[in-house]
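**User:**
Make up any protein.

**Assistant:**
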Amino acid sequence: MNPIKLRSIFQSCQLHASTMQNALLQLEQFDHPDWGNLTTQQRQILDQLAYRFGKLQDTLGMLLLPAICDLAGEAFPPNTPFAEKTTTARASDRHS
C-alpha cells in the first residue's frame, strides 16, 4: 500500500469524524428538541450527522480496512463481503 494513499484514506476518515463532531456540538445547542417539530436548522444538522456517519462507515469498510489487511498480507478479492473481512481480521488478531 502506497503511504500517500493510506494517509489520504486516514485524512478522509478524520474529515468525516470531525464534521460529525461539529454537528453534534451544534445539536447540543438546542435544549431538548421536539423531535416531531424540528426546525430547518436542526434537520440540516441531523442530516449532516447521518450523511457523514455513512461516509465514514463506507470509507472504513471499503478503503481503510482493505488497505490495512493488504499491509498485513491479508488481501481480499474485490467482491469480498465486509462481514467476511472483519471476521478474518478479528481471527488474525486472536492468533497474534
